[in-house]
Each structure stands twice: as C-alpha cells, then as structure tokens.
Amino acid sequence: MPAAKGPAANPDLNTRDDEGRTPLTRACAVNDLNAVRSLLAAGANVNATDYVSR
C-alpha cells in the first residue's frame, strides 16, 4: 500500500501554537524559504491562518 500524502500524512505539519501559527506560517514570517519549500513539499496547509486571520 502506498504511503499517505498531504496534510493527513503528517498532522504535525499543521499543529498550531498558542497564537494559532503553524510551522508554515512561522517559516513565512521569518522568510525561511528553505523551510517553506520543505513544508509545502510535505503537504503543509497553505490556507492556514493564525487566530487573528493573518
């Protein structure tokens, strides 16, 4: 059976901190392009926003 892909494959990719930020939103906030690329390739949710919709 093939491995699962997308956000369900690794729920930690979309885990939120106490302000609602995901690893992807944090990587974007600090302009870490390598982390952003890696997270996107691993299936991070590109539509995630923090608790104040940023």
Task: Describe it.
This protein is mainly α and 54 residues long. The chain has a domain of 32 residues. 31% of the residues lie in helices and 0% in strands. The protein has two helices and no strands. The longest helix is centred in the last third of the chain and has 10 residues. The chain is globular, with a radius of gyration of 11 Å. It starts with 22 loop residues before the first helix and ends in a 12-residue tail after the last helix. The mean pLDDT is 83.
Q: What's the helix and strand layout?
A:
Blueprint: H1 23-29, H2 33-42
Helix pairs in contact: 1-2
List keywords for this structure.
about 0% strand, about 55 residues, 2 helices, mainly alpha
Compute the average pLDDT: 83
Distance between the termini: 38 Å
Low-confidence stretches: none
Strand content: under 5%
- Give the ordered list of helices and strands: HH
- The total strand number stands at 0
Structural class: mainly alpha
Shape: globular
Q: Major β-sheet, in short?
A: none
Q: How much helix, percentage-wise, in residues?
A: 25-40%
Q: Specify the number of helices.
A: 2
* Cα-atom radius of gyration: 11 Å
